[in-house]
Amino acid sequence: xxxxxxxGLLLTVLLVAGAAQADRGSAKFKLDLITEVRIFxxxxxxxxxxxxxxSLAALGRFDYIWNSARTSxxxxxxxxxxxxxxxxxxxxxREFELRHRSGGLDVRAxxxxxxxxxxxxxxxxxxxxxxxxxxxxxxxxxxxxxxxSLAWTGRFGTVTGFLLPYFRERTLPDVRGRLRxxxxxDHDAAVYESSxxxxxxxxxxRWSMSSGAMxxxxxxxxxxxREPRFILRFEPPEPRLVPVYDLINQTSLDLTMVRGSWVxxxxxxxxxxxxxDFGAAVGGFEYTVxxxxxxxxxVGLLAEYAWDTRDRRSPSPFQHDLFLAVRLSxxxxxxxxxxAGFMQDLQGSGAFVSVDASRRLGSAGRLALKLRxxxxxxxxxxxxxxxxxxxxVMEYTHHF
Length: 400
Fold this sequence. Notes:
The structure is a single chain. The chain is mainly beta. The chain is 4% helix and 52% strand. The chain is built from one helix and 21 strands. A hairpin with a 7-residue loop joins β3 and β4.
């Protein structure tokens, strides 16, 4: 069923793109080639895991715009080869989307990416796309989502409806991969609450508005949860963790407000599911230190607090946690920047430290360093399984 739908979508988009050739449209193409090394200073918990890995990745993007810039086609393929994790060697179509605008009406069809949210430390309300968890531990990378969306913009904001006809399972590390639970995952035995499995149609509705210094969004999602819970299955040759995808109804709000040098951020949600209804929130601020010199270093100070009503029963590591960070931009010709922060568990001793720094090399390259440290997580903390997985990532990206 999904294969027929994808073939039909591909044929439709190609026909539309072909018909557009007579419209003297404009096309842009770019390609990023990425070389990455990950170094883990501590010995792994599982001897099948390695101390370091190398990988090569490519991310392309093709944009074709026509019909007086009212219609566009976006194609963005991604692929990675990894030396240590077979599941991290994967490919994905991040975007393959036809977009059309007519007056206040916007239509999107194909495979796309949609981001909701405001905060830096935790993205609570971002639910349309599935997390590509083998790419990074911070949840920033997302898989492409088959979708059809219709948005109408009027005087009182934008109302957008989404139909999501096919579900993407979360990518999870292989038995040889780092940054996984102590018990390996069973990648081929996912359990769904819906008898339709991946073919269960999900839907979402969102109202958003930008008014001066404030951006606000209110959303509702009904369908298969993007975040799985896990059950332990005892089968030879060893126990495995099986991902379970429940049906949920989730209502959320995200808010950003700018006041001078202050940016206030908030995300709140309530979710109904078959296991335990819960609420969660994360909120805080980013303060940019004022400076009179136009080329002076920019300094931003961030503080956020994350809270979950499930407390210690939550599978999320962010139940009562404080996030503090500093953002630096050197304003130099190389575009040097850094974000360094830590998330402190207020109910235990555990902390998560992250540092992201990057700068341009020449006219077409960028070097990035990423440090992740899981400091003294308690045995009841979901991050405890990653206690030996502190790591440094060195990444070079060449832009074509």
